[in-house]
TrEMBL record:
Belongs to the short-chain dehydrogenases/reductases (SDR) family. This is Short chain dehydrogenase. InterPro entries: NAD(P)-bd_dom_sf, SDR_DHRS6-like, SDR_fam, SDR_PhqE-like. It comes from Karstenula rhodostoma CBS 690.94. GO terms for molecular function: oxidoreductase activity. Keywords: NADP, Oxidoreductase.
Amino acid sequence: MSSSTLHSRISHCKQVMVQDVRIGDVSRPVRCRQKSQQSFLQRLPPTFLRLATMSAKDQLKYTNKLLNSRILIIGGSSGLGYGVAEATLEHGALVAISSSNSSRINASADKLKQSYPSYASNIHGLTVDLSNTDTLERELDSILKRATQTLGGKLDHVVFTAADALAPMKLADMTVDRIHKAGTIRWLAPLLLAKFLPTYLTASYRSSYTITTGGISEKPIPDWSVIASYAGGHHSMVRNLALELKPIRVNGVSPGVVDTELWTMGEEEKAGFFEQSRKRLFTGRVPTAGDVAESYLAIMKDWNMDASMVRSDGGSLFA
Ligand SMILES: NC(=O)c1ccc[n+]([C@@H]2O[C@H](COP(=O)([O-])OP(=O)(O)OC[C@H]3O[C@@H](n4cnc5c(N)ncnc54)[C@H](OP(=O)(O)O)[C@@H]3O)[C@@H](O)[C@H]2O)c1
């Protein structure tokens, strides 16, 4: 099909359905009312659409901030990290998701490719195991190095959502080993990662490093003293790392309960737990990872957000 035929078919599309099209540095929505035209647009490769819509004149300074950004999501194979992967792909970013289980990463990368077929080449999966303190430094350096190689240059954003199973424990059950283990992935890994970030992240106010804490950092729960201590540490971690990594921005997200794979209890128990949580929340609903992913997006896109902890908890701190 010639580009003039293509242009005239796209010109017939008037309103409603929106297909994001990348044009050089910007992404542009192409709108189409008719079903036949919608499927026509969906089948087109992005490069054709790019050529065909070059004449569009709208400014897109908000929706294009992440276009072609290189983003590593450590813990991106499920839960909040997977939500951030979806959100950043929708903004046209180049995304590497990583976690410890290679088959899970591949399955998640395939799922993302199915959801975003036009961005399939933007999606990459990398393995990293952050559970072993003997190999942690090497793993952290290696994941950043492989991400820069895979994504084709220094990174623009790193998001850390990796975590192992929650380990609440009674004070009487605390041991040095159990306390260390509870904090290795959630607290030690994101802190130690900062050692390597200046080498692999572009030194700019546009770049960011975002870690994850949780409501427990501000509101006590019985048997959660160990986790709460690490989670509270994340608040001062973002402030001090922001100072030491400047101009790279360092922030955190603090969710309340979110419906993710983190909650591994049986279906019935989980439903009961979510129902209790739902009743407590001002919003009256347990959020999805996609809801909370918006906070990570906001941090990446707000070039003035630094040394901050963003709460996304449906009001649960005050409930
Ligand atoms: N969901 C909630 O309700 C909630 C509420 C408040 C705070 N948070 C916090 O938010 C963070 C993310 O939670 P989530 O709900 O997204 O959890 P999730 O769905 O369980 O995701 C955890 C991620 O970490 C990865 N991971 C596990 N072990 C790893 C290891 N040894 N090395 C590298 N990666 C590893 C997992 O993949 P693999 O298993 O493949 O390694 C997965 O990608 C956690 O710190 C959590 O405490 C969650």
